[in-house]
Amino acid sequence: MSFNNQAIENYEAISTRYDKMIYRRCGKSGILLPAISIGLWHNFGHDDDFTNARKILRTAFDYGVTHFDLANNYGPPYGAAEENFGRILKKDFLPYRDELIISSKAGYDMWPGPYGDFGSRKYLMASLNQSLTRMGLDYVDIFYHHRPDPETPLEETMKALHDIVQQGKALYVGVSNYPAKLTKQAAKILQQMGTKLLIHQPRYNMMDRWVEGGLLKELETQGTGAIAFSPLAQGVLTNKYLKGFPKESRAVKDGRYLQKGNITQEVINKVHQLNDIAEKRGQSLAQLAIAWLLKDKRITSVLVGVSSPKQMIDNVRTVENLSFSKTELNKIEKILKS
Ligand SMILES: NC(=O)c1ccc[n+]([C@@H]2O[C@H](COP(=O)([O-])OP(=O)(O)OC[C@H]3O[C@@H](n4cnc5c(N)ncnc54)[C@H](OP(=O)(O)O)[C@@H]3O)[C@@H](O)[C@H]2O)c1
Q: What domains can you pick out in the chain, each with its CATH number?
């Protein structure tokens, strides 16, 4: 399939959009998610190119990516990604609303004072109302508590999620960055109220494998799906940094979360070896990194970020080759553990 080159003001989704994408069931639920989803953490702020952002989402949808992931504080500034998404939705995606799973979150610092952070009922309810206004939506499909709150009773946070579903402002709820034990407790509290913990959103990539230490097993037990964020380690697990630091890269343009200092020669040596394996498979390294996550059936979806439609296409094409030989997996394991 080629890039949808319609005039920018007239978007009509390509009719073949569901032909190639793979959809996986999200735990024990009625929801299927695309194997590859798109997140709006970066590249959708007010300083980013709006037309590029719009093209990224169109390309995603044209390739069957039905899940767009947001949060209250994505920007910069906070709220900007939801505002821009709302504009794009209005221009391009309103006819397709029922073909989309749109998520948002609250849990990190959002507004000043004691009610704009962590996990109180006050914060979650107010934040979701703000998110809906910014996006121009009546409801989100999934609303997440973005990170654990060590001080608010878990019962209060989960009751807020349950009530949000009862109010019809979210169809499903999830948690993000929760460790295994807390996830188990959260799922139980929700279940007692009659709400299912649909999904967990943890960081998971070849270089950060904490979820293998018990979380994935717990999610399977609960019948909760998993969507892996930062699957490319913010771009490190691509061929981008193999020959230095490109001007147009996250590490150079935006040092807030991906610092140049963390992309050491040791890391790059491993990336080179992984890239060799990817080349032998006829894949890009990004595709190898995504396929490696999807080999585990407990991973419902892999949540990528992209800075261009071209990267989006590269990533969705991962579904063309998802299988690994034992030899390949052993080689990858050896590199990762070296
Ligand atoms: N729940 C949470 O706490 C949490 C935290 C972080 C993220 N998330 C979610 O996860 C999403 C993805 O996170 P992320 O942006 O860190 O994901 P990522 O996929 O690991 O990194 C995205 C970056 O990788 C580079 N890239 C992507 N595809 C590429 C390709 N095919 N070839 C070369 N480079 C490629 C781009 O970097 P350049 O910009 O340098 O081109 C892109 O901006 C976020 O948007 C958000 O929805 C959630």
A: 23-235+296-321 (3.20.20.100)
